[in-house]
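Appendix B. Raw example, untouched.
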Amino acid sequence: MRGRLFRLLVCGACLGALAPLPELRADNGGDQAAAERCKTAAQTLLATLTPELKPAVALPFDDKRTAWSYFPNIPHLVQREEGAPLEELTQDQRITAHQLMECGLSSQGYQKVTAIMRLGDPVIRGPAEGRPIGPTFFWLAVVGDPATDEPWGWQLEGHHLALNFTVVDGKVSFTPMFLGADPARVPSGPYAGWRVLGNEVDKAFALLNSLTPAQRSQAILADEMPERFFTQPGRADALKAYAGLPGSELMDVQRQLLWLLIQEYVLNVEDRLARQHLESIRSAELNNVYFAWMGPTTPGGGIYYRIHGPSILIEFTHARNQGSGAPDPNHVHTVFRDPGNDFGQDWLRIHYETSPDHQNQGK
């Protein structure tokens, strides 16, 4: 009896979590509040930098900011190294840098990001070729001048992490956002048992396992996962067409499972920013969001899935071993994009078209 009651309580909690979000008015101030917090943190950080270090952190707001990367600094991969590594900051400056990270992330997102940074610790991975990877080997940059009304942003890049925040006319863009983990579950050592990005796997399988055979045949695009996720850096437009199973063909319970999976990604950002983006997804209708899968349909193998709609593009894939090329189910890559508005591109276009000082400068 107690077990049945527990299941009922859990089910009730799930239904509560799936209840419709309250409507957010356009003047709710979510963007503006986040923009002001980020502005304060960025200005505080820049004010503490030495004349030697400031040019490395304070970068121009130009096209270079869109050439993002998530690779470690080892010879056979490419690391942009735009900005300055956290190792070069003083303790107080690192504290301010983390305040800048927190301004656009939820507590969930911040914990994921810092766990990913910790997974790069040489204590776990051992020394890498070239510069070792670890929590202080992430490159931070402030692009543009947060003290003005012009567009600006901040970025943090390194091993399995790329955060890109852009502020345009008080609105905050937070994509593309790349989160990865290797190992996704730490097998040994002081962090044995740590599992980063686990919900992204479990919730996807919950949705897949809820599908009927007919729905599965539509959602599953291939029996093998692809070589890597499609919208790699510099390939934002690689997935122009939708593929897979549309939300319009899901039953209510399945739509709820899809919504939970979407929330797992969107709720990584600051609460009001996340709620606004979730509302934009709903306004475009969940019917138009497609779920696609590649690879085995049982846990333990290398898989790929994506969620693609007018206001969202999520890709999840297991990486491949560099030696054998075989899928590694303990090595995870995820990317979250906002089609048409990565790096605030759509807002920038409007800003440049409507600003008398910037006619025809939007790209």
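End of appendix B.
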